[in-house]
Design a protein that fits this description.
Elements lengths: L3 H17 L2 E4 L9 E5 L6 H9 L5 E6 L8 H7 L3 E3 L6 H12 L3 E4 L17 H9 L3 E6 L9 E5 L14 H17 L6
Parallel strand pairs: 1-7, 2-5, 2-6, 3-4, 3-5
Antiparallel strand pairs: 6-7
Helix pairs in contact: 5-6
């Protein structure tokens, strides 16, 4: 693992989660080697931790997070050093976009939540197109992941990884409609994995 800060922080988070918020990884064999866009549903603040722990520390994962978190004293500094990518929501953040493309082209993992914010279980939401754009521009696969919204301390939370796939589109480059279609299909695939979260 090349990022020393990530290598130091990860075991601490892993132990804390294992003791208080354990997880049950289902389909972890679906996580491919090399670059991939890992995309999950988002119901609680701790969802990134469940996914990263379920993926194991052998796979360094860059998580997209709202930029406000990166401004927290000490914590924000450490997260940035550990490879977390802060993004300004609601506007075009080209700096964050370029960083996401860079890590994928390097063959590393990017974790993001297509809904863009936390959504309560059962609420309607719309998928943003960022994941579709990152995957098609870098030729990396999308990997849907479902994190069970029912979380209880000391009880395992299911984290279900679906099969990786490369989004399809016609023509040399995907259109805006293609991006939205891919994003909608991705979100539907994430939700469908909920049937395996037992």
């Amino acid at each position: 693992m090349s990022n020393k800060v990530y290598a130091v922080i990860y075991p601490i988070i892993w132990i804390f989660m294992k003791l208080f918020h354990p997880w049950k990884a289902i389909g972890a064999e679906n996580i491919p080697e090399g670059g991939a866009v890992i995309c999950g549903n988002h119901t609680t603040l701790g969802d990134p931790l469940y996914v990263v722990c379920a993926m194991s520390g052998r796979r360094q994962t860059h998580v997209m997070a709202k930029a406000e978190i990166m401004k927290w004293p000490v914590i924000g500094f450490l997260l940035k050093k550990a490879g977390i990518i802060g993004v300004n929501r609601g506007k075009s953040d080209m700096g964050a976009v370029k960083e996401c493309l860079r890590v994928l082209k390097k063959g590393e993992k990017l974790l993001m939540f297509p809904e863009g914010t936390r959504v309560k279980d059962g609420e309607d939401s719309q998928a943003h197109t960022g994941a579709a754009m990152f995957a098609t521009r870098t030729g990396t696969p999308l990997v849907p992941v479902y994190i069970s919204p029912q979380k209880r301390r000391f009880r395992k939370t299911a984290v279900v990884f679906g099969e990786p796939y490369h989004p399809k589109f016609e023509g040399r480059k995907p259109s805006a409609d293609d991006y939205q279609r891919i994003a909608d299909e991705l979100l539907a695939g994430i939700k469908a994995l909920g049937e395996q979260a037992v």
